[in-house]
TrEMBL record, chain A:
Organism annotation: Coptis chinensis
Protein name: Proteasome subunit beta
Major subcellular site: cytoplasm
Function: Component of the proteasome, a multicatalytic proteinase complex which is characterized by its ability to cleave peptides with Arg, Phe, Tyr, Leu, and Glu adjacent to the leaving group at neutral or slightly basic pH. The proteasome has an ATP-dependent proteolytic activity.
One Pfam family recorded for the sequence: Proteasome
From TrEMBL, chain B:
One BP annotation, GO: proteolysis involved in protein catabolic process
Name assigned to this protein: Proteasome subunit beta
Main location: cytoplasm
Species of origin: Coptis chinensis
Catalytic residues, chain numbering: T11
Amino acid sequence: MGKVSAAIDQGGFNFDLCRRNEMLMSKSGFKPPTYRKTGTTIVGLVFQDGIILGADTRATEGPIVADKNCEKIHYMAPNIYCCGAGTAADTEAVTYMVSSQLQLHRHATGRESRVVTAFTLLKTHLFGYQGHVSAALVLGGVDITGPHLHTIYPHGSTDTLPYVTMGSGSLAAMAMFESNYKKGLSRDEGIKLVCKAICAGIFNDLGSGSNVDVCVITKGKTDYLRNYQLPNPRTYVSSKGYSLQGVKLRFCQLGLSR
Amino acid sequence: MDTNAPHSMGTTIIGVTYNGGVVLGADSRTSTGMYVANRASDKITQLTDNVYLCRSGSAADSQVVSDYVRHFLYQHTIQLGQPATVKVAANLIRLLSYSNKNMLETGLIVGGWDKYEGGKIYSVPLGGTILEQPFAIGGSGSSYLYGFFDQAWKDGMTKDEAEKLVVKAVSLAIARDGASGGVIRTVIINSDGVTRNFYPGDTLPLWHDELEPCGSLLDILSSGSPEPMST
């Protein structure tokens, strides 16, 4: 009892577990758990009325698919959405944190949030953590000053471009954009191009897969099209259904289990 | 390809004084390892109406430093009641670079015009030194330009001569440095104001062993539907 209170009284950080981790790794050959990464293909483009964001839906833990239908397009504000690649926990946490900061700001100012606000909050946070918060983001939205599309990298650097791709499937997706993008695309052309780019990532990158999520943001209206395309149906589903410990389950033929 | 590698701007940046002002020039490539993350970036950022900054090194570090200095200069301008001088801007950059030298990786060239000294170029390389020079070069592509400038630089050039020199120099560096590429951007600052120019690849001369572009995307895209591949 006396020993425990002495440790608490000392104050500061307690690094005992670090020593234990090092010992486990060197002596027992124990490997630390791999982070759940989103592998990912995420894209964004500017079209004539606003912004279209796209993402695949596979989340990986090393070589295993941890989630076949995760959501990578995160809500920031009614008019601002953010796609996230990198460590799933980091992208979720950082987008949720900035989203709540934006909400408080909206209450304080009484105005619609601006993309540049989210942009500055995200870039400042990521720069401060010097790349250790492994979140690569595609931030897009339409506010009073017009449509905006930005990429934010884990080290805090940013780019502002008419079309962007991020994640392990970014090269495949960028190939689609570079050959087919033009200024002033219509809504349908834009969605088609985004789907093409995400599908390029899904089929050619091992870290990306499953379905295509699309989010169309225009002035005054946002359409979050969850599972807009499902190009990877389950090839075989038993018509008798599957039973697990007495519970009978039936899977629909097109949807993925959740 | 390591998508988590920090973004560096491989880069070629140049700042040149001429009779009446300065010309700043840069390429437009930002790389993550071997992938070009942004092929059309703008590395010449504005600090005040009359002072601009060429950035090289880590993209994140140089963006943050330029944001801080822009803010300090804005405050300084309000308190001073007149436009900030190029020397003050360069020294603010130097103060941040030097005191954070262990954590930052930036090579910066500050250029501008003020009514006291006219056109001035200051170089603030990796350690945070400040050097006032009639011309300055920086970035990975600058290695290929030291000899070129020794031969081609002369004092008292006109605005057009200076800009032509900058464009030629960046174009030569792009030809030889893998980490530089894209388009060439220039900014001319003098007593009349600021002029931004843009030179895409097809306007630049071809150097030794370079061939005429054939079947480039610029032609395919403008003609409507993509042509089928030909052998």
